[in-house]
Amino acid sequence: MTIRVMIVDDQMMVREGFSVLLNAMPDIEVVGEAVNGREAVLKAAELRPDVVLMDIRMPELNGIEATREIVAADSGSKVLVLTTFDLDEYVYQALRAGASGFLLKDASARQLADGVRVVAAGEALLAPTVTRRLITEFSKLSTVPRVASVSRVGELTERETEVLVLIAQGLSNMEIASHLVVAESTIKTHVSRVLVKLGLRDRTQAAVFAYEARLVTPG
Prior knowledge:
Number of helices: 10
Number of domains: 2
Number of strands: 5
Distance between the termini: 38 Å
CATH class of the largest domain: Alpha Beta
Order of helices and strands: EHEHEHEHEHHHHHH
Strand content: 5-15%
Helix content: 40-55%
Strand order of the largest sheet: 2-1-3-4-5
CATH topology of the largest domain: Rossmann fold
CATH architecture of the largest domain: 3-Layer(aba) Sandwich
């Protein structure tokens, strides 16, 4: 199936560049573009793309608020944040707003396409070496509200807690299954139970929660 993508950036060269790279992929189609967050929200509702490539700093409505509105609309569109810096407070806020991950703007064509595919498949794009530092750094800020009450950690079984920690470390279901020597289907069940018990939307929020609950420390 073709993955339908919308590109949101206030710079025309960025939009055109990403559009050319993605349209060259046999399984990806760019179905729309937006120049600011407000237009992104409107077009996402109209086009219902599988993945929205979202810049953060834009006029009228920034990428964080646009992400929050798109995710709240529950249209099924996943948001992949584009950023220039890997340690960016705004990226952290976007992840908390519901983005499924982020990519640096200097990513290669292969990284860009792979990122779109990962997010479209419902996985979180959580590169352990980058996202772990970012989430850890900004989860220390006392002014940032928690994704969910950390007291709910006690509702998890020992195995579910172990799975949550591995999610936060950036492991896929297959990698977690290999690490724990169980079937991948078993891990999918654990992940679903973790999300339900903690009242979280997806793996990205689960990773943020794990850091905020101090289940994972900088490594």
